[in-house]
Please model this.
Amino acid sequence: MLQLTELGLRRGGNLLIERADLRVHPGQKVGLVGANGCGKSSLFALLRGELTPDSGAVAIPSGWQIAHVAQQTPGGERPAIEFVIDGDRELREVQQALHSAELADDGLRQADLHGRLDAIGGYQAESRAARLLHGLSFAVGDERRSIGSYSGGWRMRLALAQALMCRSDLLLLDEPTNHLDLDAVIWLEAWLRDYPGTLLLISHDRDFLDAVVAHICHIERGQLRLYAGNYSAFERQRAERLAQQQAAFERQQREIVHVKGFIERFRAKATKARQAQSRVKALERMELIAPAHVDSPFHFSFAAPDSQPHPLLQLEDIAVGYQGTPILSGLSLSLSPGERIALLGPNGAGKSTLIRLLAGQLAPLAGAYTPAQGLRIGYFAQHQMDQLRPDDSPLAHLMRLDPERPEQQLRDYLGGFDFGGDRAMAPVAPFSGGEKARLALALIIYQRPNLLLLDEPTNHLDLEMRHALSEALQEFDGALVLVSHDRHLLRITCDTLLIVHGGDVEPFDGSLDDYPAFLSAQPLSAQAGSAQPQSRGAAARHGAGTNTSRETDAAAASRKEQRRREAEQRTRLQPLRKRLSNLERRLERLTATQTELEQALAEPTLYADTAKRKLLEMLAEKQQVDAELEEVEGDWLSVGEELERLQAGAAE
Model:
């Protein structure tokens, strides 16, 4: 059993943990959560023996083998698979001893070591390592490439594979999904569920935590509190505890009312499509999640765009790729305000290529790319963080965008992203990855885009920031195209799923919950992906060529015609979608006003003789709001039914 007793831990002058107790039994899987800087990674360093406690004691069974992901990214010319096998330290020790016995011509020692090698599965080690690499989206055959030939993100995957290779008793994983795509996250999730040892997991991906852990250890104000259940259960339990505090309770109720209103409006039109039902479930879950975030430091929203042209962007028969060779072809797509699209697909299939095309950063090889006049794109990808000026502060970055705005207003805006006080004036260079990602998002949101393109926006973001981002995206008036391995974010912000696969982009027939089954049905080579941009492109091109060779010209032409008809249908339906979106916004405003009036009318002082005039005014206002709300609800239902009727007719 892992046991912390009266633990005190400092880093520099900061007291991170004070007089904390924790017991983790063998085989338990525990998620470690808490605000950035609360001490999660320091606690891992303590368990690895890299730090010593300032007070109290740490007890780990002496025979336990501890595995973790190396802090330094690997390099060198060794084959990747040999680096991964290094994770099985006992295997390497036996192999080294066997080599020494062979040099000494010690037959008895060799026989004994071969027996040990067989007992620990040494003869299957290479196969086990290859399966780990393929599960983490390395292409079949790439395991023999040198470590140095991989980019930084792929080297982090190698380090993760090495940690998983270790036959450990205690596995420490700190944000293992940061450099993974959705396919690899789903695979890792299944692997960790079957892991027989004790797991301590730091993650900001709530779906991942829900699927893997059975306990949550929350670090808050220097204390460790262990909750039974997964992350959703933790949020409910913590919300109940916070609700006992009156100030927190009032904020909690306001957020619940907001989320309930969103759920009810959406529920009425979510009776047919599986994807719609999936989103309703996610929204229902948000009712339980929201109260646990009442003390979040993040509060921001998207301002209404200056214009909303229809459509915002049109693609017609596009081919796009690199060095003259297409990765995607025959692509037709129309984006209009209110669109909510999630891109799925195996790693290397072209999701980021499509995002770059939409952003105007990658020119098409063929076809027509037609942006609307007034199109304003907000594009977030990991390289945006590298474009921040290291010597400038968050305030300086924002002042460059809007030099005429008063400084205090800019500071207030940055405060919603937790860049308050001196932090707004600090240079960006020493910021963490999460802080840089927050700043990059803040700069994009400030520019009031009407088309938002987000490529893995949650990497490095903690749970509180992810929650705030999901809330803001729900209220965004423009179009959204999202690539993310965070399934919770996909569920509650996107209505349409497109799959990028085999050189094509098509609607995904199912909900997000059906995607793991789709992955498991793919051949191993299709699941594995590749490990560098060049290789990913080659894999996608090979897939596209194979499909083309199987199809007749007539079949290919039929698919192109179908995509053209679908694009025309989306264009025809867009006025209805726009009207429905406007009605939804009016419903939200009127519902909020109605709620405020009902709360005000519940005040006993309003019924005193001296307040009679005010009472009559409020009753009249309430009657007017009720009538307007009823009218708007009727219009909303009529427009929604008409939209569903036209969509059903098109499907037939």
In short: The longest helix spans residues 553-601.
